[in-house]
């Protein structure tokens, strides 16, 4: 999975390992773009400092909602801003840890996951004894809130275990999310009011980070499938502690009802944050494929049948969490490129050149 927050930790780790210099120079007339990035132009930096990630468009595509650790915050809270970066404000409670915010149809409400019911303070980071792992906090639940004042309107999940990583179908009828309520991180769907919660995935391993296709017919997600006795044993030890080791994640697709699941990538590395191109035939995602250290994540695009893999970004740090506008003309993503301080991750908006 991530938790979202955890992939920001990846970004911070990467930024801490690499020096500020890059191996390629930016374009002078497009200062946030590298020459090889032929699918991107007129890249604009929307945030300036802190750890910012998972920025997703409102339905009218006039705003972005995202999570950030900035200023005096000790862990992520939810923020909203205009698509030019103006009007930034916090819309979560400021309590606990939050992740995975997404607008609902009409853009007057949004959902996000939060641990605030378990306490006002940020929950502790995962133990270091297991190496680099993600913490799937069991105190995460999904809430519906009002955009105007951030007031929580309704708690959408109350099952034991981790509930997070929720996104909404472009059709505006369903929410897809990840839960450990049945002992394994699996993908579920529910109605916008939290009713009719239904499990879609049933294989051993982590399933999460799901998004609907633009026509609402398919779901793309990241998943691990431990196979060897050692992999299975390691997985079982960690999952009982609400932990997951994100060493190998592949991109999968399935029908919106969970049928016809197919593996798209076979890269054997950590691939995550998949999102459909508006043609519903291609998927953009982040991966450390080709990284000699495993710490450099770039954006890639692949056909839904697994063919035509193409590298999109060429930043020697971190690029992730991509999302297209409905017409395919713009792409928003998070990146460590040209950060002023180590550990910073910012939100960028680019014109897409197809």
- The CATH superfamily is known as TolB, C-terminal domain
**CATH structural class:** Mainly Beta
Q: Summarize the helix and strand pattern as letters.
A: HEEEEEEEEEEEEEEEEHEEEEEEEEEE
Considering DSSP H and I runs of 4 or more, what fraction of the residues is helical? under 10%
Question: Over all CA atoms, what is the radius of gyration?
Answer: 18 Å
CATH topology call: Neuraminidase
Name the poorly predicted regions. 1-24
Task: Tell me the span between the first and last alpha carbons.
Answer: 29 Å
Class by SSE composition: mainly beta
Strand order of the largest sheet: 1-26-25-24
CATH architectural grouping: 6 Propeller
Give the overall shape, derived from the CA principal axes. Answer: globular
Counted up, domains total: 1
**Residue share in β-strands:** 35-45%
The number of E-state strands comes to 26
What would the average pLDDT be, to the nearest integer?
92
Number of H/I helices: 2
The profile of the biggest β sheet is: 4 strands, antiparallel
Task: Tag the structure with descriptive keywords.
354 residues; mainly beta; Neuraminidase; four-stranded antiparallel β-sheet; 2 helices; 26 strands; 7% helix; disordered N terminus
């Amino acid at each position: 999975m991530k938790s979202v927050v955890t992939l920001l930790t990846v970004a911070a780790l990467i930024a801490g390992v690499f020096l500020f210099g890059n191996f390629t120079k930016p374009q002078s007339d497009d200062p946030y773009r590298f020459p090889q990035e032929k699918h991107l132009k007129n890249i604009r930096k929307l945030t300036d400092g802190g750890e910012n990630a998972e920025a997703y468009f409102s339905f009218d595509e006039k705003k972005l909602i995202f999570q950030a650790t900035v200023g005096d915050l000790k862990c992520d809270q939810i923020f909203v801003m205009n698509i030019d970066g103006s009007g930034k404000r916090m819309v979560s409670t400021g309590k606990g840890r939050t992740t995975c915010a997404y607008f609902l149809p009409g853009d007057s409400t949004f959902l996000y996951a939060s641990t605030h019911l378990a306490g006002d303070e940020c929950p502790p980071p995962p133990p270091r004894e297991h190496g680099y792992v993600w913490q799937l906090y069991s105190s995460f639940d999904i809430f519906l809130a009002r955009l105007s004042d951030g007031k929580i309107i309704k708690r959408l999940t109350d099952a034991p275990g981790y509930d997070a990583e929720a996104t909404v179908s472009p059709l505006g009828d369903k929410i897809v999310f990840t839960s450990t309520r049945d002992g394994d991180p699996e993908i579920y769907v529910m109605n916008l009011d939290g009713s009719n919660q239904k499990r879609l995935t049933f294989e051993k391993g982590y399933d999460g980070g799901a998004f609907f296709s633009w026509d609402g017919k398919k779901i793309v997600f990241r998943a691990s499938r431990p196979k060897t006795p050692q992999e299975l044993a390691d997985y079982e030890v960690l999952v009982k502690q609400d932990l997951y080791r994100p060493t190998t994640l592949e991109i999968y697709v399935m029908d919106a009802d969970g049928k016809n699941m197919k593996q798209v990538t076979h890269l054997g590395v950590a691939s995550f944050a998949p999102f459909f191109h508006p043609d519903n035939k291609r998927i953009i995602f982040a991966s450390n494929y080709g990284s000699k250290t495993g710490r450099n994540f770039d954006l890639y695009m692949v056909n839904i049948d697994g063919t035509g893999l193409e590298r999109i970004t060429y930043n020697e740090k971190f690029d992730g969490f991509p999302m297209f506008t409905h017409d395919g003309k713009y792409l928003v993503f998070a990146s460590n490129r040209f950060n002023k301080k180590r550990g910073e991750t910012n939100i960028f908006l680019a014109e897409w050149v197809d």
